[in-house]
Structure prediction request, 317 residues.
Amino acid sequence: MKPAFQFRNRLILFGDLLLIATSVLASFALRIDLGPRFLDFVPQALVMLGIAIFVKPVVYYLFGLYRRYWVYASTRELLLIATATATASVVVFLFVMLAIASRFLPAEFPRTVVPIDWLLSVLSVGGLRLTVRLLAESGQMSQKSDGLDGGRRVVIVGAGDAGALAVREMQRNPQLHLLPVAFVDDDPEKQGKEIHGVPVDGSLKDLAAVVNRHTAQEVVISIPTAPGHVVRLVTDICRIHQIPFKTMPGIYELIGGKVSVNRLREVDITDLLRREPVKIKDELVGESITGKRILITGAGGSIGIELGLNPDVWGEF
Prediction:
C-alpha cells in the first residue's frame, strides 16, 4: 500500500541546508552567548557556515541519507544519522583547522562549537526525518479510520514479533477490513501493555472472555512456533463459541513465497500436529491386508470419520 503522505528527498535536502545553517549559528550562540561579543565572532561563524554548507550535504549523500525512503525509517536509520552527522562534523573540524593553519581564521576560534554543532545536527537531521515518518503515520491512521468502517474485529493470539507484525499489517492495509482490538498472551510481562495501540488483555485461558468483552468476530493465531496443543486449545475455544479463526503463515512460508504477510490462512492439520504428516504408501498397505479379515480397535476420531466418509471401505473388511 502506498503511503498517503509523500515527501521527496530534494525537499529533505533543502530542509537540511536550513538546519545546517541554524545549527552552526546556534552553536556559536550557545558557546559565546548573544551580545556585543557575539558580533566579533560573526565572521568566523560565517566561514564555518560556508564550510558546513559545502561539506555536510556531500557527506550525508555519501552515507545515503538522500536515498532512503524515510516513511519507513527505523532505529537502524537513527544510527546511520548519528554516524553521518559525526563524520560530517569531523570533516568540518578538519577544514576549520586547515583554515586556522592557513591564517584564514584566527587562532582563538572557539573549537568547542564543533561538538555543539554535531549535537544540534543529530537532533535537527534526525528530527526532520522523524517528522516525515510521523506525518506518514498520521496519514495512514487517517486512511485506517476511513477504511475500517465495517471491518471485522479481531483478537490476536500471541503478542510477540509475529503478532506485532500482524497488527501492523492490519493497520497499514485498511482494505483487509480487519480491526485488531486485543491481544492474548501468556507472558506476564506483556499483560496490561499495549502494542501498536492494541492492549494485551489477558492470557490464553482468557481468550473466550476477551472475545466476548471486545465483541470480536475473528481470532488470528500469530504464534508460528506454538506447540500443537496450544493451537488445538485455541481452535477448540473458537469452535465452541462459533468464531472464525485463522493463523499467520510461518517464516518458512514467507521466505518461500507461498503466503504474503498480509494473507492469513485457515488452520490445517499440520498446525495442530506441529510436525510433518506421515505419508503412507497406499500400495504397500493394500498388498499387506488384501484378502485378510481386519479388526479395527476403536472407530472414533479420525478413523471413524474416514470410515464414515468412505462407506465403500466397509465392503473390503
Notes: The longest strand covers residues 178-184. The two ends are 57 Å apart (CA to CA). Confidence is low (pLDDT under 50) at residues 1-6, 255-262, 313-317.
